[in-house]
């Protein structure tokens, strides 16, 4: 009898654990329409996208906090703005030309990319200041991202 109780308990634990894992794999991003945005977020999104072509809106949970993102194109390059539920700007990712970057940033990215090919490069802005530059790198058919600080040095942690 004890054997059966333990067996059932272990099976139930396994089922619960597998369901929890399945829930974690669900996409965190939810696509929205402009009208679905909270009022404060909508105001900020409208301000940030003046003169741009909006590609879409989404809602995402980052570290337990709900954030909204506006994807847009400005003067032919991409610009993504993350907005907190209260309407404050959390982060701006803006595409920049590698050739327009300061020499130390270009060198830092090229050093981290090693023999890989640098593709799209973005500046990452938080609280009004650039905190990092991120580059998409392709090496032997595999894609990855690298980041350096505004000084061109590798970051202690990803932004």
Describe the structure.
There is one protein chain. With 159 residues, the chain is α+β, with helices and mostly antiparallel strands. It has a domain at 97-159: Nuclear Transport Factor 2, Chain: A (Roll), CATH 3.10.450. Helices cover 28% and strands 42% of the residues. The protein has three helices and eight strands, in the order αβαββββαβββ. It has helices spanning 2-24, 39-48, 103-113; strands spanning 30-32, 53-62, 65-74, 77-84, 89-96, 117-126, 129-139, 142-148. Strands 1-2-3-4-5-6-7-8 form an eight-stranded antiparallel β-sheet, with helices on one face. The protein is elongated.
Please give the order of strands in the largest beta sheet: 1-2-3-4-5-6-7-8
**Secondary-structure arrangement, i.e. CATH architecture of the domain at 97-159:** Roll
Radius of gyration: 21 Å
The succession of helices and strands, N to C, reads: HEHEEEEHEEE
**CATH fold title of the domain at 97-159:** Nuclear Transport Factor 2, Chain: A
The CATH first-level class of the domain at 97-159 comes to Alpha Beta
Largest sheet: 8 strands, antiparallel
pLDDT < 50 stretches: 6-18, 20-27
Mean pLDDT: 88
Structural class, please? Answer: alpha+beta
Tell the overall outline.
elongated
How much strand? 35-45%
Question: Distance between termini?
Answer: 55 Å
Question: Main traits of this protein?
Answer:
Nuclear Transport Factor 2, Chain: A, alpha+beta, 8-stranded antiparallel sheet, single chain, 28% helix, 3 helices, 159 residues
């Amino acid at each position: 009898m004890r054997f059966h109780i333990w067996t059932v308990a272990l099976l139930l634990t396994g089922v619960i654990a597998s369901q929890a894992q399945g829930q974690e794999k669900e996409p965190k991003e939810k696509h929205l329409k402009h009208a679905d945005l909270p009022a404060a977020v909508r105001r900020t999104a409208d301000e940030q996208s003046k003169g741009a072509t909006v590609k879409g809106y989404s809602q995402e949970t980052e570290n337990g906090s709900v954030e909204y993102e506006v994807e847009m194109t400005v003067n032919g390059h991409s610009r993504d703005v993350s907005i907190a539920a209260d309407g404050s700007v959390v982060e701006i990712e803006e595409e920049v030309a590698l050739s327009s970057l300061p020499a130390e940033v270009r060198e830092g990215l090229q050093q981290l990319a090693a023999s890989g090919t640098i593709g799209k490069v973005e500046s990452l802005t938080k609280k009004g200041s650039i905190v990092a530059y991120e580059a998409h790198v392709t090496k032997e058919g595999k894609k990855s991202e690298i980041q350096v600080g505004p000084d061109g040095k590798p970051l202690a942690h990803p932004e």
